[in-house]
Amino acid sequence: MSTKTPLGLFEGAGIELEYMIVRRDTLDVLPVVDELLKTVVGSYANDYEKEGICWSNELALHVVELKTCDPVSDLAETADLMHRDVLQINDLLADCNGMLLPTGAHPWMDPCTEAKLWPHGQRTIYEAYDRIFNCAGHGWTNLQSCHLNLPFNSSDEFGRLHAAIRLILPIIPALAASTPILDGKRQPFLDTRMEYYRTNSARISSITGEIIPEPIFTPVAYNNEIFARMYRDIEPFDPDNTLRDEWLNARGAIARFDRSAIEIRIIDVQECPRADLAIVASINGVLKKLVEETWSDFPNQAAWQIGPLKKILLDTVREAEAAVISDRGYLESFGVRGRDRMAAGELWLHLVNRIEIEKELAKTLVDIVQNGSLASRILKAVGGEMTRPVLEKVYRELSSCLAENRLFLP
Q1: Are 216 and 229 in contact (CB under 8 A)?
Q2: Are strands 181-182 and 145-151 parallel, antiparallel or unpaired?
Q3: Is the pTM higher than 0.85?
Q4: CA-CA distance, 362 to 278, in Å (whole number)?
Q5: Structural domains for the chain
Q6: Which of 240-253 are b and which e, b meaning 16 or more Cβ less than 10 Å from the residue's Cβ?
Q7: Is 185 exposed, middle or buried (0-12, 13-18, 19+ CB in 10 A)?
Q8: pLDDT tens-digit map of 52-73
Q9: What's 214's DSSP letter?
């Protein structure tokens, strides 16, 4: 998200959606993002910049990112713009037997044998990542996420927004998990993408921390306690400082002082842009209530340490909406009174009924909350039969949902 004058809290948002390119006939990954961008740019390029939605490469050669070129305030319109570009990309990919596939991870890709890294332009960045961490794994080359960038324009706004984001992070997988199947098998986690993501930089643990960011609420403290330590720890592995940048930070939410925003990275990509933007709208709506101190005040929010929040996060990564939250204080922070236990899905139902979002996305959000996370719906459609024909049938239907911008409701 870029802007000349920093926006204030909730005056706009930057959205990024990542999709896989797969073969139309087999749904196997198809590493042709460079050829896709060459088709529209005229030469190999990292980005296709245009008005509205821009396209860009990612680490893996089969993943393309669609992102808002500037902050947006109309999320429903953004969903439509994203869908328009999905259709355009599918048309362009038809010549090479390709198309886009949604969800946060490919269900049977073997990244150890099939992954190809971006070979052009900024390839030195990806080569450095691969040299240090070995990117031939699910946590690197088989994961697609939705990033939400939210602005701030002062140190005080940063602190209040960071406190609210830390509080909501643990329950995002309950709404957004979409990765129950990897390696052609049912995994122990409904948000398997996040399970891999949280450990993919374990060699240098300060890069991801505990996924839940530290309780830090000023830019100065953030730079001194997070960035300085992270850069110091990676320097022996990266003497040329190729990775010395804010995007090296891999926590569930990261400060982007270069764009005066906090970027939330914990959201799995859904089956269509309308679902992605409905989830973004719900997160935005809850954060606004938290920052306004509707249910709990800033000191209460800032007092939360990593441990209790991480416990809830690990539970929702495993069980999504079925995870039981048994922390009375956490529930009270969201306005739930007199309850010692509540399923994460029930908490989201409580929240959805108390926030304001665009009416064009409201019904989609209610359908998601009532029918469960996409991960749960995928497992329901598979029905326990983890065979390649069944998986291909289900994921082909998901590709149709993406092309038609509709929910997957088996």
Answers
A1: no
A2: unpaired
A3: yes
A4: 7
A5: 106-393 (3.30.590)
A6: eebbeebebbbbbb
A7: exposed
A8: 999 999 999 999 999 999 999 9
A9: P
